[in-house]
Amino acid sequence: MTTTTLPAWMPPVGGGVLVLPCGRDFDAVRVAGLTALQAVGRFPAGPPPLIEDQEQHVASWLLPPGAAATWLMPGTDALGQGANLAVPPARWCSGPWTGGPAVRWLVPPAGDCLGDPAVLRSVLDAVLRGCGVRDA
Asked: What pLDDT, on a 0 to 100 scale, did the predictor assign at position 131?
């Protein structure tokens, strides 16, 4: 993994998953795990970091604080002020099939770990329309 400066809220390397509050350092958009897998390859400049919870079969992208307040999209859950999110340490990228944790980074963290809400909305809109979740 390339050495990069990660946010101060990132769990320490030797630690475990931390349950962090949304709305302070980040908000999140959660989707079904399969939806996330279908979306990952559609980002024009590559996908932003993505947390996957394989026990719950969901994945979450982190967005700037406040983004959840205006996020309305069927097939997604916006996690903002008052919600919590399980965040793994940056190096947790392997899954349980290799002895790794169930909560991991499907797309490794980099930079501030925050995606662009407009780009995420566009990508998810295309994926969810293809799955018949959104109205035409």
From this structure: 61
From its phi and psi, is residue 99 left (phi > 0), alpha (psi between -120 and 50) or beta?
left
Number of domains the chain contains: 1
- Specify if 112 maps to a domain: yes
C-alpha 83/C-alpha 14 separation (Å) is 25
Mean pLDDT per 10-residue interval, the chain, length 136 residues: 73 88 97 95 94 94 97 96 94 66 88 96 93 50
Q: Give residues with Cβ within 8 angstroms of 18, minimum separation 6.
A: 11, 86, 87
Distances (CA, A) of 88 to 16, 74, 103, 118, 121: 6, 27, 6, 25, 24
pTM over 0.85: yes
Structural domain contains residue 1 = no
125, burial (CB in 10 Å: exposed 0-12, middle 13-18, buried 19+): middle
Burial class (CB in 10 A: 0-12, 13-18, 19+), 132: exposed
